[in-house]
Write a structure and sequence with these properties.
Structural class: alpha/beta
Number of helices: 3
Number of strands: 7
Order of helices and strands: EHHEEEEHEE
């Protein structure tokens, strides 16, 4: 299976989620199932069915997060010799031609959150930025059409 790139913070976030699922949510759902069983006939017990469905979701999420953590390639760009290029984990200040300035950090798929300025490595804009230097122009083929950005600054935090 291919390695999944993650930032140090992203790997920590997944480990914290896994810990929460195993130590808090799993025991809580086991208690909820036991309580629902005590109410009698399981075939007509909606509370039991909902608890079992929630347990299935939690166990599936545990398996998914464990897989992601075990296949993670944790990348810390501040420890890499990037030679000023835009790489995974970099924070990039951009200015759209004829538009506003934006700042994005290039992160793994699981970490991406546009509201926090984190874009996925597999997004069109990240693919257009990788390998470029400050001062370069990046042409992004987005679903809304072609956009051009000037790379103002690249930081590795």
């Amino acid at each position: 299976m291919a390695k999944t790139p993650l930032t140090v913070k992203g790997a920590e976030m997944l480990r914290n989620e896994l810990h929460e699922l195993k130590t808090v949510q799993r025991p809580a759902i086991i208690t909820a199932i036991a309580e629902a069983r005590s109410h009698g006939d399981l075939s007509e017990n909606a509370e039991y069915a909902a608890a079992k469905e929630r347990q299935s979701f939690i166990e599936g999420r545990i398996a998914e997060v464990e897989s992601k953590v075990s296949n993670a390639q944790i990348i810390d760009p501040s420890m890499m010799d990037t030679d000023g290029r835009c790489v995974f984990g970099a924070t990039v200040d951009l200015e759209e031609v004829g538009g506003a300035a934006v700042t994005y950090q290039i992160v793994g798929d699981d970490e991406a959150d546009i509201k926090l300025g984190k874009i996925s490595i597999s997004s069109p804009i990240a693919r257009a930025l990788i390998g470029k230097y400050a001062g370069d122009m990046a042409e992004v083929h987005a679903p809304s059409g072609v956009r051009e950005y000037e790379i103002i600054d690249i930081r590795y935090v």
